[in-house]
Amino acid sequence: MAADKVDPIHQFHIVKLIPINIGGYDLSFTNSALFMVATVAVASAFLYLTTSSRSLIPTRLQSVSEMAYEFVGNMLRDAAGTQGMKFFPFVFSLFMFVLVANLLGLFPYFFTVTSHIIVTFGLAALVIGTVVVYGFMKHGLGFLKLFVPHGVPVYLLPLVVLIEVISFVSRPVSLSVRLFANMLAGHITLKVFSGFVVSLSALGAVGVAGSILPLAMAVALTALELLVAFLQAYVFAVLTCMYLNDALHPGH
Amino acid sequence: MFVTSAFAEEAAPAVEGGPTGTEGDTHSSTGVPAEAHGVFPPFDPATFPSQLLWLAITFGLFYLFLKRVVMPRVGGIIDVRNDRITQDLDHAARLKGEADAAVAAYEQELAEAKTRANTIGQQANDAAKAEAETARKKIEAALDQKLGEAEARIASIKANAMKEVGTIAEDTASAIVEALVGGKASKAEIAAAVKSVAR
């Protein structure tokens, strides 16, 4: 058990809580699913309860909800214009989901939903899927103009188009890996330093004295992770806005 | 609408990329966590279908809840507030306009009152002057009249006095003549003599 505590990877293990197996696929309700539910519940409850009084003069918590709403709204309007506002609910739920999942993950013994590549990839695929589907729906084949920038000499065009295609294809990868890697690395670092505290404290008085430094580091890292948790949610939402802008205005 | 298609897109790999059922079975039956496989947990494909499914369920519900309930509400709150602010600003502007109008009316009234006061003052001044003038004239006239009367009286007194001076002179002259000459001079002669002297 002591080894488990120091093992920085242990926190990422998926544990089945309610095994479900349908058609040969393992669809169990796991701790990951539990924390997805928790994320959604916490975010929904916060947004719902803080705005329930609909005060003209907002309370502190209500203004937090309003700030989040206007923050994402302005972000989307700046990136994709007024036309982009039809994606506001989508971007807002993405931002809130990632933010709350990241923040919940900071609690000790809590599972971090966004530290699993498949979750972040699922969200990124949803974004890119929306971009592609909406882009073709709205512009038809004109959406492919996205890959043909203006003012490029004809002899360079094949190369440029190739680069643009590669850059587009790598978007879901970069979008998902950025969030996943940040959360994973942060939590491993946090766990390693906390592990130092535990193992050093077991060595007696000298060890306890020596564990002060990693403890201070763990505290500082927690603050940093708090920043990263917000920042990554912001980055995810901003990039989503920019990609949606491509779907709305593919002609650069 | 686009969400459903996007969800389909997301759900597709969940179905295709899923692991074989046996792997999942060993998981649940042994109850050993994934570390037994020696796979780094975030990269363990055995957990992918379940995570994707639950992500789709939870995120889908979250999206619907935000879109249907939360965002109309928050947007409504903000709109109501903005409306209220605009309304209040309009109200304030209207009140300011009214206040300005009141100030202008007051100043106009003040100016009118001032001119009115000036005219009233002027009129009073003129009236007082005229009154004083008539009073002065009346007094002057009365004084002139009295002066005239006095002069007339003086003149009559003087005339009487002069008349009596004649008789006195005649009497005196006749007495003097009597005393000096011893004869009696006729009255008429004396009167003529006095008259010629007095002339």
Structure notes:
The complex is a heterodimer of chains A (252) and B (199). Chain A has 252 residues and is mainly alpha-helical. Chain A has one domain. Chain A is 69% helix and 4% strand. Chain A has a two-stranded antiparallel ribbon. The longest helix of chain A is centred in the last third of the chain and has 45 residues, at 157-201. Chain A is globular, with a radius of gyration of 22 Å. The N and C termini of chain A lie far apart (56 Å). In chain B, α1 packs antiparallel against α3 and α3 crosses α4 (187-198). Chain B is mostly helical. The termini of chain B are far apart. Chain B has helices at residues 2-16, 21-30, 48-181, 187-198. The radius of gyration of chain B is 69 Å and the shape is rod-shaped. Chain B has a domain at 156-198. Chain B has 4 helices and no strands. The longest helix of chain B is centred in the middle third of the chain and has 134 residues, at 48-181. Chain B is 86% helix and 0% strand. Classes of the chains: A mainly alpha (252), B mainly alpha (199). The interface between A and B is large, with 61 and 57 residues.
Portion of residues in beta strands of chain A equals under 5%
Mean pLDDT of chain A: 89
Into which percent range does the helicity of residues of chain B fall?
over 70%
Residue stretches of chain A low in confidence (pLDDT < 50, at least 5 long) are none
Q: What percentage of the residues of chain B does DSSP assign to strands (E)?
A: under 5%
Radius of gyration of chain A: 22 Å
* Cα distance spanning the termini of chain A: 56 Å
Helix and strand composition category of chain A: mainly alpha
Total helix count of chain B? 4
Oligomer: heterodimer
Question: How would a crystallographer describe the biggest sheet of chain A?
Answer: 2 strands, antiparallel
So how many helices of chain A? 8
The count of strands of chain B amounts to 0
Keywords (chain B): ATP synthesis, Cell membrane, CF(0), Coiled coil, Hydrogen ion transport, Hydrolase, Ion transport, Membrane, Transmembrane, Transmembrane helix, Transport
Protein name (chain B): ATP synthase subunit b
Family (chain B): Belongs to the ATPase B chain family.
Organism (chain B): Mesorhizobium helmanticense
